[in-house]
Specification:
The longest helix is centred in the last third of the chain and has 14 residues, at about 75-90. Helices cover about 60% and strands about 0% of the residues. Helix 3 (about 45-55) crosses helix 4 (about 55-65) and helix 4 crosses helix 5. The protein has one domain (about 5-90). It is built from 5 helices and no strands. The radius of gyration is 12 Å and the shape is globular. The protein is mainly alpha-helical. The model has no long low-confidence stretch (mean pLDDT about 90).
Amino acid sequence: MRTPEVKKFIDDHQELFWYTPAPKSEKVTDELLVETTLNHGTWEDVHELFKVFGEKNTANVFFSMTGRKKLNYYPEIHNYFDLYFKKYAL
């Protein structure tokens, strides 16, 4: 179940989830939420995600993605957040 803050984040950032119809947007998985925000969001979007979803929780989702899912990140994005989360969130 999504918290109201996360639901509001998804609603406020529909441009990131344009391929998901609005009524179903709150059913976006944690993995997709983190991946899409880190890959396509602005730095302000990322900070807002950290506020509503939690920096440690975001890091846990990021590191839990393995195999093909991990390859969905742009290489430079994956490298940056790998270093960032290892230094600041774990």
